[in-house]
C-alpha cells in the first residue's frame, strides 16, 4: 500500500507538475489552504482552477477555511518589506502549519507543498519550515524544489493544455502592489 500524502496546493498550475511526479508513489490528496490570497475573487479563480484539475486528474481534495483576516494578522509586522522577505516566510509557515495539523488530524504519513514550483519561491526556506513543522507532529515532510528539472516550465505547459487560470502575482495584496504596471492590477 502507498503512503498517504497530503499535498498543500497553492494553485492549479503549480499542482500539475507535483501531482504528476508524486501520484505513482503516494496515495495523494490535495489541500487547498491559502488565506493569503487577495482579493476574494482571485481566491475563487484559483480554487476553481484546482477543482478543474481535480476533476480532470481524479484526486481527492480538501478545501481549507479562507480566513484572510488570519493572514493579515500574522503578516502585518514586516511593514513594507520586499517580496521574498519575512512576510513570505510568515505566510509559508501559516499555510504549512495548517497543512501539517490537517495531515495529523486525518492520519496522513507525509506532507508536501507545491510552493517550490514558483520561480521566486525559496525552496530552502519552504523545506526548512515544512520539515520543522512536520517533525513536531511526527509526520514526514517531503522536501523538494519542484521548479528544478524544468518543473516550472512543465507546469506552464501542463496548465495551458488543461486551460487552467494562471495568475501573475503570488497572491497577497502586498505582492499585488509590487506588480509592474504592464501586468495591470485588475486581472
Can you put this structure into words, describing what you see?
The chain is of the alpha/beta class and 187 residues long. The chain has one domain: Rossmann fold, CATH 3.40.50. 47% of the residues lie in helices and 12% in strands. It has 7 helices and 5 strands. It has a 5-stranded parallel sheet with strand order 3-2-1-4-5, sandwiched between helices. Helix 2 links the parallel strand 2 and strand 3. The C terminus is likely disordered.
Q: What is the gist of this entry?
A:
With 187 residues, the protein is of the alpha/beta class. It has helices spanning 12-22, 40-57, 68-75, 86-106, 123-136, 151-162, 173-176; strands at residues 4-9, 27-32, 60-63, 110-113, 140-141. Mean pLDDT is 92; it is low at 180-187.
How are the SSEs placed, and which strands pair?
Elements: E1 4-9, H1 12-22, E2 27-32, H2 40-57, E3 60-63, H3 68-75, H4 86-106, E4 110-113, H5 123-136, E5 140-141, H6 151-162, H7 173-176
Parallel strand pairs: 1-2, 1-4, 2-3, 4-5
* Cα distance spanning the termini: 44 Å
Helix fraction bin: 40-55%
The second-level CATH architecture is: 3-Layer(aba) Sandwich
Walk across the major sheet and give the strand order: 3-2-1-4-5
CATH class: Alpha Beta
**Percentage of residues in DSSP E strands:** 5-15%
Q: How many strands appear in the DSSP assignment?
A: 5
CA-based gyration radius: 15 Å
Oligomer: single chain
Compressed to H and E, one letter per element, the order equals EHEHEHHEHEHH
Shape: globular
**Secondary-structure content class:** alpha/beta
Q: Tell me about the biggest sheet?
A: 5 strands, parallel
How many helical elements?
A: 7
Uncertain residue ranges: 180-187
Compute the number of structural domains. Answer: 1
CATH topology, by name, is Rossmann fold
Question: Whole-number average pLDDT?
Answer: 92
